[in-house]
Amino acid sequence: MKKFFMYISMFLITIIYLVPFYILLNVAFKPTTDTSSFWVPPRQPYLGNFINAWNNAKLAKAFLNNIIITFCVVAVVIIIGSCAAYPLSRYRTKLNNIVYMFCISCIVVPPLTILVPLYKLIVDTTGTSTYLGIILPHIAFQLPMAIFLYTGFIGSLSKELDEAALIDGCSRFAIFYRIILPLLKPITATIIIFVGVNVWNDYTFSVFFLQKPSMYTITVGLSQFFSQFSNEINWVAAGCLLGMLPLTTLYMFMQQYFVKGLTAGAIKG
Q1: pLDDT in tens, 238-260
Q2: 3.60.15.10, 3.30.420.310, 3.40.50.300, 1.10.3720.10: which CATH number matches 58-265?
Q3: Which end of the chain, N or C, is less packed with Cβ atoms under 10 Å?
Q4: What is the pTM of this model?
């Protein structure tokens, strides 16, 4: 009986997650002239929405902007996060504990609470509509979670690895680069997915900091289809499907590391 309710719960949760995706597919493959309910599947798949979304939202440039911004943020977060987590995990001094607790406390700070002063800072430093002006805020907000996960994962690794390497004459940098870093693949994959999804799908920072059409990301580009006098929901649905393909593909290649890294990274902190 207990297993029956468990399977029922799993089935209902799956349905809840699949229903929006089902509606998205229906709307994306229907022509704008089709006024039938979004629950009714299209009689014949219509690909014109994808063409219109790609051309009118200039998704080619938007994809390039997304790739540049996401890649830079993920790369910097991984480098700084892993390097910072190693001493925080291995040396539990009072200063390191304070730094670690400060990083953890930053996780609970919603970005919207400091959006106004942050926007003023970006404007005053002429950072609007530049890659640097959007990349640096993303790094600042994504780095605390990366440090938290890396610190927990490194804490689950035996310190005997470090001690054996020290006996062999390795420096601390060599220990981290040659021994610890190769063992961080699972948690690195988890961080790539977490940070990549957050940055790729960001709208709040992008709509404020990227004001030139040539700098629009996918989310900002698709939002232009909504206005006071028009609502091209079919184009938006098609654009959303195109926008989710890169990260979906990335997750399929990294899913074997995702759960392992997330679980291990939460063991210690």
Answers
A1: 999 999 999 888 888 777 666 66
A2: 1.10.3720.10
A3: N
A4: 0.89
